[in-house]
Specification:
By secondary structure, this protein is mainly beta. It has 3 helices and 11 strands, in the order ααββββββαβββββ. Strands 3-2-6-9-10-5-4 form a 7-stranded antiparallel sheet, with helices on one face. It has a two-stranded antiparallel sheet with strand order 1-11. The chain has a two-stranded antiparallel sheet with strand order 7-8. A hairpin with a 2-residue loop joins β9 and β10. The two termini are 15 Å apart.
């Protein structure tokens, strides 16, 4: 737990580290699928193309993100109020996270969100516990642009304090 001094000195600076906003989509062995707001996604490798995704340890989704499992990362556009609000509220495992969201089925069988700028499909290649989060390494296997990439204006998350969302 951060001390009051750390929160006042480190927090305002750490919170200004920019991160993109994505909707992470995953499924489980029972055929359930869900999506969650993910703002700690970072490219990690050129060859093969890989990203890291941090998920809070308290999320049930960690049970679904096993080595070899498929995921989709849907990049949210700046000013988007629909996907951010919809997936920001969170879903229980038995809730349909995709009600009122236009999707198409990707190559992995998981939904791609058509309101996103783009969707990247991939496979979990490993994980490491990191404090209160688990960091997943995801190899990107395909990508779909839902608009022209040169027109992308991604939603970038800047926090007031580096010790909370």
């Amino acid at each position: 737990m951060a001390s009051e001094e750390q929160e006042s000195t480190i927090g305002p600076i750490l919170g200004r580290v920019p991160s993109g906003v994505f909707i992470l989509v995953a499924g489980n062995d029972s055929g359930q699928q869900t999506g969650m707001l993910a703002s700690w996604v970072q490219q990690a490798s050129f060859e093969p193309p890989q990203v890291t995704v941090a998920v809070n340890q308290s999320r049930y989704l960690n049970e679904w993100l096993t080595d070899g499992s498929a995921v989709t990362l849907n990049q949210v556009a700046k000013g988007d109020g629909v996907l951010f609000k919809h997936f920001g509220k969170g879903f229980e495992p038995d809730e349909n996270a995709f009600d009122d969201v236009e999707t198409e089925t990707g190559t992995t069988g998981l939904p791609l969100l058509k309101a996103a700028m783009a969707s990247m499909e991939g496979t979990v290649r490993g994980a490491i516990e990191s404090g209160d989060h688990v960091i997943y390494l995801v190899e990107i296997t395909s990508a779909t642009a839902h608009q022209a990439p040169e027109e992308f204006d991604p939603f970038v998350h800047i926090r007031k304090n580096g010790f909370n969302y």
